[in-house]
Design brief:
Blueprint: H1 12-62, H2 77-103, H3 109-119, H4 126-135, H5 145-159, H6 171-193, H7 197-205, E1 218-226, E2 238-239, E3 246-249, E4 253-261, E5 270-276, E6 281-288, E7 296-301, E8 313-319, E9 322-332, E10 337-346, E11 362-368, E12 374-376, E13 380-387, E14 391-398, E15 403-408, H8 409-416, E16 423-428, E17 435-443, E18 453-460, E19 466-471, E20 477-478, E21 483-491, E22 496-505, E23 508-515, E24 522-528, H9 529-534, E25 549-558, E26 568-578, H10 581-614, H11 623-626, H12 643-692, H13 698-737, H14 744-815
Parallel strand pairs: 3-9, 12-18, 20-26
Antiparallel strand pairs: 1-2, 1-4, 4-7, 5-6, 5-8, 6-7, 8-9, 10-11, 10-13, 13-16, 14-15, 14-17, 17-18, 19-21, 21-24, 22-23, 22-25, 25-26
Helix pairs in contact: 1-2, 1-6, 3-4, 4-5, 10-12, 10-14, 12-13, 13-14
Amino acid sequence: MASQVENPKLASNIQTLLSGLRWRIRSYVWIEGLAVALAWIGLTFWVVVAIDYGPVLVGKWLGGLIPMLAGLPEASVPVRAAMLTLILGSSLFILFRWILRRAFVPMADHSMAVLLERRFDEFHDSLMTSVEMAERPEHAHEFNRAMLAHTNDDALSHVGHVRLHQIFNFSPLKLSCGAAIFFFATLAAAFFLWQDFGLAASRIYLLDAKPWPRSARVEVLGIEVQRSIASEHDVSEMILFGSGPVKVARGSSVVLRVQADGKMRIPDVCTIIYENEEGDRGRQNMKKIGRVSNGYQPYSFDGRPFKGILSSLSFDVVGFDHRIGPYRIDVVDNPSVVQIEILDRRLPIYLQDANSKKGSPARRDKVTWTSGMTVPRGTAFKVGIHANKPLDSATIHFPKTDRTLTIEIKKYLEQAGRQDANYFEFEVKPLQIDFLAEITLHDQDGVIADTPQRMFITSTPDEPPTVAVRLRGIGTAVTPEVIIPFEGKVSDDYDVAEVWAEIQAPDIEIQEHQVKVPKNGEVKSAIDFREMRDDETKGFVLTPGEQNKLVLTIKANDYFNLAEEENIGSGDRYELDIVTADQLLGILDREEAGQRRRVEQIFREMTDARDWLLRVKADSLGDDDLGAEPEDKSRSEPEADDDADKARRAAERLHSLRLLFSQRSLLQTRKSAQEILGVAATFRDIREQLINNRIDAEDRKTRLKEAIADPLQRIGEEMFADLELQIESLETKLKKLEKDLDNKRGISEVDEAAEAAIEQAEYLLAELEKVLEHLIKFESYAELLEIVRGLIADQDEVSDETVIENEKDLLKLLDD
């Protein structure tokens, strides 16, 4: 029979059908997207392995047949990093293209109805009509109710015959899942069967520099320089290859020494692949020397290009599938500076002050010069130069002063009583600017260095002291009776000489208030402006006024004396309005009102936190809180889940909500604790302003401390901490219960923990409410005081205007 309803509603069977279709579409999207991503990861893994490990395998398998392929290297870190970037970028694209862009698209009921209508012709638009009338009931009166009911019944009659799987094309899904299964199988097989799988993964995804395993391993020991005239006592010296190239004299002949690990495959020959600076390239085979000794097979080579070296060259060594290099041999002719030393530094006078305790004026030390070296301005020192060969002379040019110094080494050695022609010294006067020297060496063979050795030392100026001092218990305005406390730290790169406070006020000369500085630089002092006013020698009187300001700056200097001006460091510049006591009270009243609003906001937020804790209790959440699951179906449907599954899902959803509410309340508690401590600090500051400005308001000071600041501090430090511990305990029990949601004992423990947290929250809110009552009560009192102050100000203004009018009338009478 047709349904006669005031407002048409969508039948539960139709809702279940639409929800089921929506759930299947999203499931299809997720499964397909994840399968494509997994397949892509597997594919790219093997592609990168082929690019990275392929050359190594080619060198191993074909190196014996094609020498040019022997010892091919792995892919470098930049190449692998580029491939990893490509993999990550394409993976993100897959996730976006196949999942994110489709899975979260809104799927309205009418869209699902259109899809079903297109696939199942028997609906004849009845399903679409029913959905649209349910979504837009305001248009239902435009149609015949009996007709709408008949349409709805017609749609319901066909719902039971719908098979949702007939809507989908499963070919793309099968292809994606097949590819994902294939590549997952290959990766799983490689994980269990390929011993280098971990190395491959680390090289691809962690950019590990560890090389692929080789069948052979060779090592370059170094070179031995052959003497032109050998003797039986002559022993060749091995020059080892370090992090850089080795150097030999032009025309020298050397022997290259290489060894192969005897525990691995021993190459028949080791091949040298070289290239010199002229561009000549070539390959030479190294022969074995004897047999394996101490676990290594030695190789040696002394032919071209290592015989009579005329130009620098670089080379690699290949042994079967292992390649090492490149190594470089540099040919040098020029004398060069081996080491530069700074000797006998003499500190400037400002660093020799007895109070600084920096040591004696002259420091008999020796340090090695390095690029970027710095010395204090005014330092004098000596420079010692070590050369790589005996010298004849040296020329030192100073570009900054355009001065040139020439040192004859033979004459220098006679005067200094030295015999080492590879070393000399010169003296540098106290530096006022940066030091730059260009050192050109002349060796005893008559060779002059092609490029001068540049030596640069920065002369660092003495920085002014750093003043990090702040006012304590002072706001933006002060009274003429104020005492201004300040504290902080004054530091210097060496030592602080003096600290003072510079004070400025309208129509008063700038005055300085000396501050005693302890050795650790900690400053804690105060300026009493009442004492300054009473001191006739200072005569510093503060006068309230709209434009009158007190400017206070803490300054300090050090012992620097190499310039006309002192090194003076300044702290923050404080501009304070000079006001009367009543005006300051009005400012503090407004500040206190603002803090009251902050406390009210914290109270509201903590009330919400308390309400969240109430919802954590087991009997506080109903079915409405659980929300509708897209996969829920009517019990009358053949495919409906059984009651046990529904109960399990509902229990899991309920537990997630309880855990969410406990976490929200914990976050809010931590946030409010910090805020309430900040409010307490502000009220203490207001009280200190009353004290420092000598305002006679003992009741107010007592109230600010005992009724507001101290309770808020106790609430913030103790009660919030207790509540936080209670909520953390509750959250721990909830996470423990997550493993067994049917554990009645666990549920009972959670309820007990929730009740304890709620009681603590209620107690905290009660204490906050007491503080708020004091604040609200005082605010009403402060408003009355403000009205009285306004009446007094108006009365004073009327009196002043009356006096002015009386004077005008008197002058008028005198003129008449």
